[in-house]
Amino acid sequence: MDGLNQSAVSGLLRFITAGSVDDGKSTLIGRLLFDSKTLHEDQLSAIEASSRKRGMQSVDLSLLTDGLSAEREQGITIDVAYRYFSTPSRKFIVGDSPGHIQYTRNMVTAASTADVAVILVDAESGVKTQTRRHLYLAHWVGVSRVVFAVNKMDTIGHDQTAFELIRDSLIDLARGIGYEAVDVIPVSALHGDNVVNRGDNMPWYLGSTLLEYLEQVPGAHDSSNQIFRFSVQRVLRVNRDNVQRCSDFENMDCRGYQGLILSGTVQVGDRITVSQNGSQATVERILLSNKEFGQSATSGQSVTIFLEHDIDISRGYTFSNSDQPMSVARDLDAALCWFDEVPFDGSKTYLMKHGSDSVRVKVKEIQYRVDVDSLEKLDAEHRMVMNDIARIQLRSQRDIAFDKFTVNRQTGVFILIDEINNHTVAAGTIQ
Fold it and tell me: What pTM was estimated for this model as a whole?
C-alpha cells in the first residue's frame, strides 16, 4: 500500500463497497464480518435459516447486508445497508451501496461520508460502465482513497496474468480520474481468499488482504481538524442567569443557538461570525447534549451556543471562525449529478437544501456533461437525464454562505428538491 502513513491510522474508518450488479459486494461484506469473527450467534443463526429457506447448501453471506425483503426476493441490493464491526486494530462503518444504475443516487449518498471506496470488479467480465461511474462519483464526492477488489478470482482459475491485465487497466482508469494512490487486490468473496485470510489459491499475490488494507489506511475525513462551521437549526429563548439549572428552555429571556457543528472545533471565548450577514460575537457558553456545559465542542456534536450578546437570526444561518469566513454569493458554479427519472426542466425553480438552509434556485446554464466512459466533456444542450453528471451555474433567490467543496466537504454540498412532489432530483458540489 504505497503512500500510507501508519502514524495517521487510528479511530473509526468509514468505507463503502461499490460496483456493478452481481459483482459480489454484499457477499464481500458478509465475508469480512464472518471471517473476522464479528458476527453474533443470533445473526449467524438468522442467515443460516434464511439460506436453508432459499434451498442453499451453504450460508449465503450476502444476507447480512441485504436486509430488505424486496432485495432478498430479487437478489439485489436496493438501499444502502450499513453495518458496524471492529477488529483489535480498528472500528469500521461499512455501507453496501446498490449496483443497479437507477440506484446511483444511493451510492452517492453512501460515498458522501466515506473515507475509502472499495470498488468491486468481476474477474470474468472486467471493467463495466457502472464501475467507471462509481469510481468517478467517488472522486467527485471527495472519497480520497480507492481500493479495487477484483472478485470471483475462483471463476478464472486464480489466473495471475488475467488479474494483472485487469489491474493495469484499473490503475490507468483511476489515475485518469485523479487518484494517485491506487491498490488492487485479487479476492474471492465466496471462498474468502484475500478478504480476511490469505488462503492458498493465489500464492503469487504478495500484497495485503482487504482487511489488512482497511486496518492500515488513514481515515482521511476527520472534520474536527477543519475550519469551524456551525449550522443553526433552532433558536431557543433561555434565561442567561439560570440556564445552568434549567432543563426546560422554552419561554425564557435570551437566545441560545442550537444546531450541529459541521466541522472544526469551537471554544468558549472564540470570536464567531454569522456568515450570511457578517454579525460578530464572542462565544460565552456551550451547552452540550447532556445538558452540561463544556469549554469546547467539536464536529458532529449537537450543541447550544450562547453568545455574549443576542443576534437576530433564525434557522439556516451559519457560524464560522471570524478569521476564516465563508464565501457568500447568489451565483454558484457547481458539479451536479441528476438522480430523477424525470429529466431536468430548465423552466423550473428547484429548492436547494444546503446544511439547514433552504432557498429556491434556478439552473442558469449547463456548461457541459461528462461521459463516464471516456471522461470527455459533452455538449450540454441544456438537458440532463437520470445519472447525468454536469457542470452547471446556479442562481439563488438570495445570498447563501458556502465553502468550496475542495475546502470543506460539509459546507460545499447541496441537494435539489422538486417542490411539487418533494422528490430529491439531484446532488451537487460547489466548485
Answer: 0.73
